[in-house]
Design brief:
heterodimer; A: 601 residues; alpha+beta; Beta-Lactamase; Heat Shock Protein 90; 2 domains; 5-stranded antiparallel sheet; B: 332 residues; alpha/beta; Rossmann fold; 6-stranded parallel sheet; 12 strands; 46% helix; 19% strand; transmembrane helix (chain B); transmembrane (chain B); SBP_2_dom (chain B); Peripla_BP_I (chain B); membrane (chain B)
């Protein structure tokens, strides 16, 4: 996967096209899969992030809107109460009788009670005039003597506000006796109808039930939460306000207050803040989502991608192994059949053509080619055989003129010596020999006939060499009828005499034994002549070896003919020891006539 | 040839299999959230379970919020009296039988509970001390106010209230409790040259009524008594109630430890001149946090100071102090 050179080396290592194809497929698939994974993961992450920002922004804006409408509603209530004539009269009309003020106070208190009873998010509701008159809750609570309510920030804020309305941050309401509650105060300036000036404050202390409900109703995942900051960055509401106040938890308030975008990731990247600012309250609603939770979806997507990738990879490997096997199947067949051809087995070399593609035409050409080679080879073998046979025929017709001359010479000598009996014997043996060599035009004779021929030959030779040659023939009658090519034995015997016994000082023996073993007939020609060294033995079937040719037919010629007729497993084998003698064994099949030689006839 | 090829194919399939397994492993590793976090079982034994007591209820609330935050199964058990050391030992023994992962204890005695706490450690349960310490260093960690420093700060503040011959009385809570010992030591240190004007010290066993009675007795015994120092909420409130009821508010000055609505009211009313408040909520929360850190094998500070703050009438309305004085509980 590094460079082209590396590629080649990698491919070079494979021992088959199939695995090359399979591995290449798999590697390509892995690369494709990794690219796909990278893009998909990246894309999913971004999409999830963007969706979260959008979703969170919508929720935060909704919460902000809900808080605004909640505050608007309370402002409306405050407007109704503060503008009622009872409140104005009670606080600022100093000319009324005590009875009138008492009645007004009762009516205001009952209104306050109604409001407090109907809404559980209101702790305190009160109207305070700068002249010291006040109405608080149901009339049983009192302002504390330790604090001047006019110094309270929420009181002053209402008076100084242009709208005459102020919404405080969260604070402890210290102004009421024996009550120290964390509240948000909505305060509204009261106008003295006599002077037309802001001359007091109507206020409502809100607990957190309504706001926390608004914030908690909208979930930002399992762990995400919503909190509210006032315009100075103080906490108005936080689901873990106690931890915030205890300094056990912090939010990136500075960053939130200075952020220009409506969302940002914290520096550590663990939280996503979404921000929405309200014009009515001046508050900032912030949604905090843990990125780990966001990425849970991402993780699930990742899991799916990896799973699909793994399954695909396995699938592709299996399929590519099947495909590569199918693709290379004809090539492998071709290769197997080629190796058969290498061994010369043309009969089974034909390849089934299963495809129309390049390999198919290759197979077709291969079949045509092997057939042609086969035909050519068969033709060649046939021609060779024919050539050998014609050679043999030509040779068979001859009888060694030296032998004939020597024999006739011997007869003359014997006649002159008056050995008429021996002359008769030798002449008849010669006559038999001559008749046998010319009478039979067939290429094969029985072993019995061949032995008769050898016996005639040995008769003549024994008479010629007298005391120097002794022979014995012991043939098992079982093999007398077995067919053998003509002139197979005589050259071997002749070879034994001329190369084994001729150089021996003393009398030499030749023993010829014939027997059958298994499906083969064996004829051994053993002599106790001078024997051969290994060098001579190794080259005994070498045609070029200069040798004495009996009848013009040498041992190599016999060996060739035997193997040509009967096959490689038959023929002559020699065992010899220098100075001890030589054993030649001729092997022929028992059913010598049934092989393809017959067909040639 | 064929065999070798098959071998290569098998190797190929094997490699693909391995790649697939690697993918799956990467998958699992990418999802550490799949491994469910263990829910630890922690038992908290405060000195006392008393909902009227601002300190202990706040500490418990802090611990409970911590438990929620860190997903801990927290059980709170304890005696009805701070003096009941035997009772606390019984609860410690019961806790051991429940085989929690850790026990957070506010020991009621400096030495009385040590044997029982040794058993906790010997049982292989992590021991964390909160608020108070014991005579042995066997706890994994301690979360407490530095009581000596707090006492010294109170002593130094008290110095500003003193005139030359003013006699000082100390109303302490439980004799032998480490908090009482440390605070007294700190207060005496803070008083400096006025230390020898401390004429009396009484122990009330953390009971409002007993503190009230002991204060009355002390005033009878020492008519020139001008300052009373309370070492915890029970002591300070009991003493202040007595002063208030005797109409001596302002004449006999009271300073003390801890924070409750009653103390704040009396601070506003001028019975108390100053209170030093601990941060029990933080203490409870940090106690659980430390415990979880220990159980998870993270390094922790052996001794964690949860902090304290001197509150007077002048600074009590400051926002920062309001947050400490009035525990925020949301929907009150």
């Amino acid at each position: 996967m590094k460079d082209k050179k590396g590629y080649r080396t990698i491919f070079g290592r494979f021992k088959s096209i199939q695995s090359t194809i399979m591995v290449s497929f798999s590697v390509l698939m892995v690369i494709a899969m990794l690219i796909f994974l990278f893009i998909a993961l990246h894309f999913t992450k971004n999409t999830i992030y963007e969706n979260s920002v959008n979703y969170s922004s919508q929720i935060i804006e909704q919460v902000n809107y809900d808080i605004d409408s909640y505050m608007e509603y309370l402002i409306n209530i405050s407007s109704i109460v503060s503008k009622s004539s009872d409140v104005s009269q009670y606080l600022y009309n100093e000319d009324q009788t005590e009875e009138e003020t008492g009645e007004e106070r009762e009516r205001i208190l009952s209104q306050f009670v109604t409001i407090r009873d109907s809404r559980n998010d209101i702790y305190n509701i009160a109207a305070v005039a700068n002249n010291g008159r006040s109405v608080l809750n149901d009339g049983s609570d009192h302002f504390t003597e330790y604090i001047n309510i006019k110094d309270e920030s929420w009181y002053r804020a209402a008076l100084s506000s242009s709208r005459g309305i102020a919404i405080s941050s969260s604070h402890v309401q210290n102004a009421i006796q024996e009550s120290y509650k964390w509240v948000i105060t909505l305060s509204r300036a009261l106008v003295n109808y006599r002077t037309g000036k802001n001359d007091g404050v109507f206020f409502v202390d809100l607990n957190y039930s309504a706001i926390s409900e608004l914030c908690n109703n909208n979930s930002l995942g399992d762990k995400g939460y919503i909190f509210i900051l006032d315009e100075n960055g103080n906490i108005v509401y936080h689901p873990k306000q106690q931890l915030m106040y205890g300094g056990l938890m912090t939010e990136n308030i500075d960053q939130i207050m200075s952020s220009k975008s409506n969302h940002f990731l914290t520096k550590t990247g663990d939280k996503l803040y979404t921000i929405s600012k309200s014009d009515i309250t001046g508050w900032t609603v912030v949604g905090a989502i843990y990125t780990s939770e966001l990425m849970k979806n991402n993780k699930q997507a990742q899991m799916l991608y990896f799973l699909v990738a793994a399954v695909l990879l396995l699938g592709v490997t299996v399929v590519s192994s099947i495909i590569s096997r199918e693709i290379t199947k004809p090539i492998r067949q071709l290769r197997d059949s080629m190796s058969l051809v290498e061994k010369g087995r043309f009969d089974k070399a034909n390849v089934d053509v299963t495809a129309e593609n390049e390999v198919g035409s290759l197979s077709k050409s291969f079949n045509v080619m092997t057939e042609r080679i086969h035909t050519l080879m068969e033709q060649n073998v046939y021609e060779q055989k024919q050539k050998r046979k014609s050679e043999l025929k030509a040779l068979q017709a001859q009888i060694n003129p030296h032998f004939l001359y020597n024999t006739l010479d011997s007869i003359i000598w014997m006649s002159e010596a008056g050995k008429s009996e021996e002359v008769v014997l030798m002449t008849s043996a010669l006559a038999r020999l001559l008749r046998q060599s010319i009478s039979n035009a067939k290429e094969e004779v029985s072993i019995g006939e061949e032995i008769d021929y050898v016996r005639s030959y040995l008769t003549i030779q024994k008479m010629r060499y007298k005391d120097k040659l002794e022979y014995s023939i012991e043939m098992s009658p079982e093999i007398n009828h077995v067919r053998i090519i003509k002139l197979a034995l005589q050259p071997i015997v002749e070879n034994a005499i001329y190369h084994g016994l001729k150089y021996k000082e003393t009398k030499g023996n030749i023993n010829i034994d014939g027997y059958k073993l298994g499906r083969k007939a064996y004829i051994t020609i053993s002599d106790d002549g001078v024997g051969m060294d290994e060098e001579t033995l190794a080259h005994i079937f070498d045609e070029k070896q200069k040798e004495h040719k009996a009848n013009g037919v040498g041992v190599p010629n016999v060996q060739k003919r035997l193997q040509l007729y009967y096959g490689e497993e038959y023929g002559i084998s020699y065992i010899s020891r220098k100075g001890a003698g030589t054993v030649a064994t001729i092997t022929v099949p028992l059913d010598g006539g049934t092989n393809d030689e017959k067909k040639d006839e | 040839m064929k065999k070798r090829m098959n071998k290569e194919i098998r190797t190929g399939v094997l490699i693909s299999g391995i790649v697939a397994v690697v993918f799956l492993t990467a998958l699992v590793l990418l999802n550490p959230q799949n491994q469910e976090k263990k829910v630890y079982k922690i038992i908290l034994i405060p000195k006392i379970i008393d909902s009227t007591n601002g300190f202990w209820s706040s500490l418990t609330a802090g611990a409970e919020l911590g438990a929620e935050e860190f997903n801990v199964d927290l059980e709170v058990m304890g005696a009805n009296s701070e003096e009941d050391v035997k009772g606390q030992i019984r609860y410690i023994e019961e806790s051991i039988r429940k085989k929690p992962d850790a026990i957070i204890v506010a020991p009621g005695s400096y030495s009385g509970t040590s044997d029982a706490l040794q058993d906790v450690v010997d049982s292989g349960i992590k021991l964390i001390l909160i608020d108070s310490i014991i005579d042995r260093d066997i706890a994994e960690a301690t979360v407490a106010t530095d009581n000596y420093l707090a006492g010294r700060e109170l002593g130094e503040f008290t110095k500003s209230l003193l005139t030359k011959d003013a006699e000082i009385g100390i109303v302490a809570h439980v004799k032998g409790a480490s908090t009482a010992i440390e605070r007294e030591k700190g207060m005496r240190e803070g008083l400096g040259q006025y230390e020898d004007q401390v004429v009396d010290i009484v122990f009330n066993g953390s009971s409002y009524d007993k503190a009230y009675a002991l204060t009355e007795d002390m005033l009878k015994k020492h008519p020139k008594l001008k300052v009373i120092m309370g070492t915890n909420e029970y002591s300070a409130v009991g003493a202040a109630r007595a002063i208030g009821d005797l109409g001596l508010a302002g004449k006999v000055k009271v300073v003390g430890f801890d924070n409750s609505i009653e103390e704040i009211q009396m601070l506003e009313a001028g019975v108390f001149q100053g209170i030093i408040i601990q941060k029990p909520f933080n203490m409870g929360y940090l106690g659980v946090q430390q415990t979880v850190n220990i159980l998870e094998g993270q390094p922790v500070e052996k001794s964690l100071d949860s902090g304290c703050k001197m509150i007077t009438r002048e600074n009590m309305y400051e926002e920062e102090n309001q947050r400490l004085l009035y525990p925020f509980t949301g929907q009150q």
